[in-house]
Design brief:
With 222 residues, the protein is α+β, with helices and mostly antiparallel strands. It has one domain. Helices cover 47% and strands 15% of the residues. The protein has seven helices and five strands; from the N terminus they run H-H-H-H-H-H-H-E-E-E-E-E. Strands 1-2-3-4-5 form a five-stranded antiparallel β-sheet. A hairpin with a 2-residue loop joins strand 2 and strand 3.
Length: 222
């Protein structure tokens, strides 16, 4: 198998991943809501980019996972199988440092080490998918869906996944927020007009608390 070659575009993207300030800033609810129009555009572009890989009656999340499987196979065939490992290490380090420095770490008063590790792991996964796809994009129609996820991370937002919400598939993102003295995640569902719920970092879109108790209907995330 031939050795992996790092092209200038790959180097540029590695520099981009190093420059991301993951999970920052911690916004107020007003600041977070002001970014939603931009976030919606990014999510819609992500869904559109996944369109060619979505089969009839399939979910968008499955299309994303299937595309990743195809990327890995193509990467191996092209002899670029070290892209994932190197990118994972870079993104993991940057995301871990950001979570530790901004929200506490082991024994911190804001989020636990386990919660910070989970957030860093997800960031590293998407960053590695992005760069792996970038390395073989000429073999896969040159459309890079995972770049849109990197845009969200670049805004300090924590993307989650497509989830079934009241029987509809929706993309969900978490906004690191500071409400009073507490650091929480504002749970935003694509299609809503604003952030309607918050949850603790460790709860990962479970035990949602409505921001406006009397104005928000109950919601179940699957």
């Amino acid at each position: 198998m031939s050795q992996s070659k790092e092209t200038p575009p790959i180097s540029d993207n590695i520099a981009k991943l190093r420059s991301i300030k993951y999970f920052t800033p911690a916004r107020t609810i007003e600041e977070a809501n002001s970014t939603i129009p931009k976030v919606d555009v990014i999510i819609e572009n992500y869904i559109k980019a996944l369109g060619p890989w979505k089969r009839e009656n399939d979910t968008v999340q499955h299309a994303s996972d299937s595309l990743w499987d195809l990327t890995r196979v193509t990467e191996l065939k092209e002899g670029r199988n070290n892209t994932w490992d190197s990118t994972w290490d870079i993104a993991w380090k940057e995301a871990s440092n950001s979570a530790r420095d901004n929200y506490g770490w082991y024994g911190g008063s804001y989020i636990s080490g386990e919660s910070a590790r989970d957030a860093a792991r997800d960031a590293a996964k998407y960053a590695a998918r992005y760069l792996a796809f970038e390395s073989v994009k000429d073999k896969l129609n040159n459309v890079i869906p995972f770049g849109h996820i990197i845009e969200l991370y670049s805004m300090g937002i924590r993307p989650t996944y497509f989830r079934m919400i009241n029987s509809q598939e929706k993309f969900v993102v978490d906004f690191p927020m500071k409400i009073g003295t507490r650091f929480l995640l504002g749970c935003y569902v694509h299609g809503d007009k604003e952030i309607l719920f918050t949850h603790e970092w460790k709860e990962y879109c479970t035990n949602l608390k409505p921001i406006k108790e009397r104005e928000t209907e109950e919601r179940t995330l699957g």
